[in-house]
Amino acid sequence: xxxxxxxxxxxxxxxxxxxxxxxxxxxxxxxxxxxxxxxxxxxxxxxxxxxxxxxxxxxxxxxxxxxxxxxxxxxxxxxxxxxxxxxxxxxxxxxxxxxxxxxxxxxxxxxx
Length: 112
Hints:
By secondary structure, this protein is mainly beta. It has strands spanning 3-7, 10-12, 18-25, 34-39, 46-51, 56-58, 66-71, 76-81, 90-96, 106-110.
């Protein structure tokens, strides 16, 4: 059974940092790109970052603040989020690309 489980969310003040983890199982991790997505209340889900075994990218809205990485030995993808802003508040999800079914995600709240 394919699984991707997000963790690491929480509540932080503006300017704070969090590291999200996406633990995967049930598929050949090296064969897939993994994306991080987020969905804020009342808004569509948007892609935040994508990483394959060859390259990675992050959305313009988080460039310079977020960094994506993967540990192929642990079948895990990370999203390091620095200098968080209120507009980063959302539920964050990870998924294979193209996306399959969605998990529970992990809540990130940035507020004073």
